[in-house]
């Protein structure tokens, strides 16, 4: 009887390990998969995608990172933020008159994209300059210092020193 119980436990352990290994493999494959495009590029609007990280040195520090798709201009556009598995974390729409973010079933609206990014990230981003940086133009922005030295490799970094708290932005663009 003891050997049957021992055999049953050994089989259960093997089944558990096999299930765990299969689950891990599926998770890794899903993580390596290219997420389906969320936005449709148009001829009259800019389109960018890649990875982005925003760190705000507040107390406590805040970091937001993930994949993104961006379409539009500083006046009107859409930003989709994705987690590593390609699921939508947030969808941001803006016009000159308002900005909104949809996260799951929750929609929040603000009067401007600046107000919305301040609420979401803890710091507003220099939106007009950011669109220029994405095109390789080093447009100055109050309190921010952009580094486009690695733009040809699809990398953009920017640091905000004022107003406090300090913040940093890192973007790695996908190249077709």
Q: What does this molecule look like?
A:
By secondary structure, this protein is of the alpha+beta class. It has two domains: 1-33; 46-173, Lipoprotein localisation LolA/LolB/LppX (outer membrane lipoprotein receptor (LolB), chain A). The chain contains three helices and nine strands. It has a nine-stranded antiparallel β-sheet, with helices on one face. Strand 8 (155-160) and strand 9 form a beta hairpin. The chain is globular, with a radius of gyration of 22 Å. The N and C termini lie far apart (64 Å).
Secondary structure: elements and pairs:
Elements: H1 2-32, E1 46-56, E2 62-72, E3 77-82, E4 88-94, E5 99-103, E6 106-110, H2 113-121, H3 127-133, E7 144-147, E8 155-160, E9 167-173
Antiparallel strand pairs: 1-2, 1-9, 2-3, 3-4, 4-5, 5-6, 7-8, 8-9
Query: Can you tell me the residue ranges where pLDDT is under 50 for at least 5 consecutive residues?
Result: 16-34
Write down the secondary-structure element order.
HEEEEEEHHEEE
**What would CATH call the architecture of the largest domain?**
Clam
Count of alpha and pi helical runs: 3
Task: Tell me the distance between the termini.
Answer: 64 Å
Fourth CATH level, the homologous superfamily of the largest domain:
Lipoprotein localisation LolA/LolB/LppX
Sequence of strands across the biggest β-sheet = 6-5-4-3-2-1-9-8-7
Helix share, percent: 25-40%
Number of strands: 9
Structural class designation: alpha+beta
Shape: globular
Q: How confident is the prediction overall: mean pLDDT?
A: 82
Task: Supply the number of structural domains.
Answer: 2
Q: Identify the CATH class of the largest domain.
A: Mainly Beta
Tell me what portion of residues adopts beta-strand conformation: 35-45%
Question: Sheet with the most strands?
Answer: 9 strands, antiparallel
Radius of gyration: 22 Å
The CATH topology of the largest domain is outer membrane lipoprotein receptor (LolB), chain A
